[in-house]
Amino acid sequence: MDALFVDYVDRLSDQLLNPQKRVFVGYLASALVLALGVRVFAARTTLLRAPARIFSAGVWWSRSAKADYKIAALNQAIMMGVAPRLISQLAVATLLFEAMHVWFGGRPLVWLEAPGWAVAGAFTVVLFLLDDATKYLLHRCLHAWPLLWCFHKVHHTAETMTPFTVYRTHPVEAVLFALRATLVQAVAMAAFFFFLGDRVELMTVFGANVILFVFNVAGSNLRHSHVWISYGRVIEHVLISPAQHQIHHSVDPRHHDRNFGTVLAIWDWMGRSLCLAERGHEIRYGVTGAAPEPHGLKTVYLEPFREAVAGLSGLRCWRPVKMFSSLNFRPLRRSGIAILAAALAIVFEATVSGASSQDLNIYSHRQPFLINPFIEAYEEQTGVTINIVFASKGLAQRLQAEGPRSPADVVLTVDIARLHTYADKDLLAPVESAVLTKNIPPRLRDPGNRWFAFSKRARVIVVSKKAEDGFSIKSYEDLTDPKWKGRICARPGSHVYNRALIASLIESRGEEEAQAWAQGLFDNLARRPQGNDRAQVKAIYEGVCDVAIINNYYYGKLKRSDIPEQREWAAAVRLIFPNQDGRGTHVNISGGGVARHSKNKERAVHFLEFLTSETAQKLYGSINFEYPVNPAVEPSDELKSWGTFKEDQMPIARIAELAPQAQRVIDRVGW
Question: Where does 360-454+587-644 sit in CATH, by number?
Fold first, then answer.
């Protein structure tokens, strides 16, 4: 419970300390500067008197404002219990991303020559437009649909407004806006990553969308205030001014259902709901026919449900509801607070039961069945409970979006490029561990000790046992020989495993020769690139091709599969460790690090150390058919039976550094 309370306080204070939040202190400060300017230059108030007008106790300490503060605090606690149970952005984005492969019959990457800044700019603008447009649509629905108005009316019962009035919302409305944000962000991410690949980035300032950052610095917090700022007739057709939003809160019938927009006014302009801020407006805030006690917590939280039920029975929720007149709220105020306190306690307990401060939370790109043996061994050894969140894509974006609130302690992934992404986005914490330094060679860990390799996988060549000329293959470069035309199978070149191989070729032979190799291999393909590494071995077994490049552990999993047919696939090929007379066989890694905002860093480091121990390193070999990174641990007997090999000694971090060049090579070849 203590840890949960600390988490609650952290999240509450995060509203003021996080630049991604509307009431970040920096935005409040800029709003104050603008408000002072308006009072001094437009209202002709002296600089000494202006603060008194801005911070009037009649506004900031009114019954309406006090209710705002209570609602903000209570809603934070309620959403701590509700939000984790809503569908996640990652789940929706992953579903859409995978579905688009079916809808489009593959993955047609576009705009390949566009610079990174252009892709990032396009993503940032499109995401902003989608976000702002859907906010307008949902806001309009909240006013137009009686059932929804019952809950949205809570926001409009504010009779004085401060920047914290933005949090005066019913939890039902908060859930609707959370689901809206999940859907919009998931659609944008899925579409952009599908068509534009890993080049997609959000342009940010201090972690906030650059467009929203400018909007917030420009005085967004004055929308909920008594400071009248109009942008003029022309600009107010494009951007919603603070004065326009104040008109939206007006009780004057002329202003009802006007100015639903958040940032852009163009949606209201097109929807015929735009109202410009003219001089001489006298604005009174609130709702006509509101409850006798609109600021009581019972009214705020429970009456909307009562009205909604009445509305479903035929009553119109946006008109005065007669039942209010029969209620004496004063005696019920304390009982209403007691009810909410009890509900809050239930939320706290539900959240506590979902996770313990002693649990270790892992975000993993590796499928659960691949890491379960390690998890079980560690839990048995330490008694610590481990929770796993698995996703093949999007975890870095999720971790970035969660920020300091993230529950993640450890990140596990495959391929150095993905590890580099986490480090580059500053999502991993530096670790000081003598055990990790001893067990992992320098070339297999980050110079800043943010990520570490836990296993190695060799990119090997498999050849049909029926292909007698297969014995002539000694290197990756041999695969460009014209005699292999129509005899090679491969997965898409943009997959991280092939991209890493091309990066190693760029390191050893230069970009020009690496592109010539990729072109030669592509020209020799027997079919269009498709499937995973298992599918390439199956294709050889079926006679589609004679040669393929795979990660070694796929061969092991097929050879030891419980499915007889898969064992037949493995029996149809033999392994070649290429480039033994030169730089050695290319290897990649699986690895991980400690999440930057882990609440359990000491335990997280201990888990990483366990993964480099003899126990875990032997599990990597015996279960996953991967090679140990710890020099003191020998490969498993199964791996030894395939033969020893010399591996490429290039620093593994270079693969990540060269990945953008490798992707350009792949795009130019069309692989």
Answer: 3.40.190.10
